[in-house]
């Protein structure tokens, strides 16, 4: 299986990048890959990077290069991926400095920036200078949800490749082919993740993740009063927090073990005073990432609730379309009869408002309370963002 096989439903984008990698004379040195969350932006970026770094290699060399890219250890590959809210200007300055070096073993030096939309305008201007006059053997690959998320001057200096939303069938087939997931489970995971490839894999392979999602839907369906909305909001924050901890715990343990090995410290041994600062810096990074992970977990909860109220609206309107939450159709049909399409559409507006409020640093529990109260029809209007 090649790096390109990690993608699904993106034949046009794959063909464009494969053609570029095969023809050095036609290569563009600054690329932007856009697409909705879960469409495979990062996977496509690293598949392209692999192809560029493998140029002119034998089969054995190409296999080693693919393994190095997968481990992010190739000497001519630089990657910037942040778990923070923004990418810092110092991180981009470091990358720009690296971009000036000639490649050591490959035809190109490749630099990938995931979530390039997290750069402020000042940081973007630092990158812009590097994109205006890139060294002849350096290739920049940026990833973002939309070209509109970057400043116009950067957009004008990159070649954009747009990804489309894959279908449920395409994502399910990928899970079966690549990960050996049982077809029925793969189809359900693809549907409930709304074709987000990474989330589909998690739902297909993690029973606890499936249980947390089911609890989210059940909590929202069970809200019957203002006090019930307050209690449900607290429980949803707990679900999101548990989900975030599950995502980060294993990674943090691996990072700490790797740091101890690099410092020459045996497992279980005391850390010498002179080396504690190195571990302290790692712990601070992990705390910042945990904060971001909880925020992302709450947003996942809200996305799942959007699928719930979308399904209710479709049932109430008699649209005859497939449901995202097909596995709980009987419960949805009961809830649909008890409510109205107008109320379900108002709930979707309330969720959008909650996402904006949380982005503006409203405490998540308060934003979720207000959203659930509005979704249950206990208030006549949503009001305006606070």
UniProtKB/TrEMBL annotation:
PANTHER family: DNA POLYMERASE III SUBUNIT DELTA (PTHR11669:SF8), REPLICATION FACTOR C / DNA POLYMERASE III GAMMA-TAU SUBUNIT (PTHR11669). The keyword Transferase applies. Signal peptide: none annotated. InterPro entries: DNA_Rep/Repair_Clamp_Loader, P-loop_NTPase. The keyword Heme does not apply. This is DNA polymerase III subunit delta. Its EC number is 2.7.7.7. It comes from Microcella humidisoli. It is an enzyme of class 2 (transferase). Transmembrane segments: none annotated. It comes from the Bacteria. GO terms for molecular function: DNA-directed DNA polymerase activity. Keywords: Nucleotidyltransferase, Transferase.
């Amino acid at each position: 299986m090649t790096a390109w096989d990690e993608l699904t439903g993106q034949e046009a984008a794959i063909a464009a990048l494969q053609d570029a990698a095969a023809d050095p004379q036609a290569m563009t040195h600054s690329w932007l890959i856009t697409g909705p969350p879960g469409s495979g932006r990062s996977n496509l970026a690293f598949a392209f990077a692999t192809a560029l770094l493998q140029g002119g290699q034998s089969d054995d060399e190409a296999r080693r290069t693919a393994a190095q890219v997968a481990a992010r250890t190739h000497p001519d590959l630089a990657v910037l991926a942040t778990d923070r809210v923004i990418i810092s200007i110092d991180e981009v300055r470091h990358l720009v400095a690296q971009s000036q070096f000639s490649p050591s073993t490959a035809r190109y030096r490749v630099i990938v920036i995931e979530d390039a939309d997290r750069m402020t305008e000042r940081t973007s201007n630092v990158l812009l200078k590097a994109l205006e006059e890139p060294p002849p053997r350096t290739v920049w690959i940026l990833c973002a949800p939309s070209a509109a998320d970057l400043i116009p001057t950067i957009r004008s200096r990159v070649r954009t490749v747009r990804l489309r939303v894959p279908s449920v069938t395409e994502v399910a087939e990928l899970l079966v082919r690549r990960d050996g997931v049982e077809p029925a489970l793969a189809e359900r995971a693809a549907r409930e993740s709304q074709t987000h490839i990474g989330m589909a894999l998690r739902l297909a392979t993690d029973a606890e993740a499936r249980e947390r999602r089911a609890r989210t839907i059940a909590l929202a369906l069970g809200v019957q009063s203002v006090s019930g909305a307050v209690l449900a909001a607290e429980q949803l924050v707990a679900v999101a927090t548990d989900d975030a901890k599950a995502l980060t715990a294993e990674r943090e343990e691996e990072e700490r073990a790797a740091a101890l090995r690099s410092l020459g410290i045996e497992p279980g041994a005391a850390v010498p005073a002179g080396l504690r600062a190195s571990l302290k810096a790692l712990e601070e990074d992990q705390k910042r990432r945990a904060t971001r992970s909880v925020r992302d977990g709450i947003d996942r909860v809200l996305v799942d609730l959007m699928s719930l109220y979308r399904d209710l609206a479709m049932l109430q309107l008699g649209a005859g379309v497939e449901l995202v939450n097909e596995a709980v159709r009987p419960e949805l049909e009961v809830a649909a009869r008890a409510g109205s399409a107008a109320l379900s559409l108002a709930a979707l507006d309330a969720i959008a408002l909650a996402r904006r409020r949380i982005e503006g640093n409203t405490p998540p529990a308060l934003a979720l309370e207000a959203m659930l109260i509005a979704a249950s029809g206990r208030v006549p209007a949503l009001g305006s963002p606070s």
